[in-house]
Write a structure and sequence with these properties.
The chain is α+β, with helices and mostly antiparallel strands. The protein is built from seven helices and seven strands; from the N terminus they run E-E-H-E-H-E-H-H-E-E-H-E-H-H.
């Protein structure tokens, strides 16, 4: 409500609860990432601040964060065009492995966010593994080695808000990165100090190291 010359005027802002930017040609350029075709951070911020009501009528969903582990290495060794191709491959893999009602976002740089509606964390893990396989298949064709880490968190409207959910998924992603780092370090130590070990023994040793790392991380968290 505003007053001009002692007269009242009203401004009404109407927002559709089923607005989806990809269906709107006017907003697609600023709300859709040009490299991947996913929604971008501008669109995500509109969801986050309530300007767009998304998810539509879903009380439960799972948020996934995906990060490209070696994008800098790809850029440094093969150039930024190869880096863009890696980002495109990850985006394409996400689009191929989520439903139409789900949401894929390129949050920025090498980080992606996915919302899976009416899906629990166990289902999210399955989706992540499908995305990993798709990335591997597509990257082999382009001769680019792309490694990702992922974290997931389940949302229940009675217990969590979006900020909590992102932090939980981010912690999950960080645990995976730490596990990879520890595994690589331990495998190097095994390789350097065990020249006489055969392939079968090496595989058994590596598997045992994975079990110990997973147990350690669970105890720490």
């Amino acid at each position: 409500e505003i007053n001009i010359s002692n007269q009242k005027f009203y401004i009404i802002n109407i927002i559709s609860r089923k607005q989806k930017c990809s269906d709107c040609s006017k907003c697609s350029k600023v709300m859709v990432d040009s490299v991947t075709g996913l929604n971008n951070r501008n669109y995500w911020e509109l969801i986050n601040n309530g300007s767009i009501f998304y998810p539509y009528n879903s009380k439960d969903f799972t948020l996934i964060i995906i990060d490209i582990d070696n994008l800098k290495e790809i850029n440094d060794n093969f150039g930024h065009l190869a880096g863009d191709e890696a980002i495109k491959i990850v985006g394409e893999s996400i689009k191929r492995n989520i439903r139409k009602e789900d949401l894929g976002v390129r949050y920025g740089g090498d980080e992606f966010i996915i919302l899976l509606f009416n899906q629990d964390k166990r289902t999210a893990k399955t989706v992540i593994e499908r995305i990993r396989k798709e990335i591997n298949d597509l990257s082999l064709k382009q001769e680019i080695n792309i490694q990702i880490s992922a974290g997931a968190a389940y949302y229940n409207s009675t217990k969590r808000n979006m900020g909590d959910l992102i932090r939980m998924a981010d912690r999950d992603l960080y645990r995976e990165k730490q596990m990879k780092k520890l595994r690589d370090e331990l495998n190097k130590k095994v390789a350097n100090g065990s020249k006489g070990i055969n392939n079968e023994e090496t595989l058994k040793g590596s598997g045992r190291l994975d079990e110990l790392i997973t147990k350690y991380l669970k105890e720490e968290n």
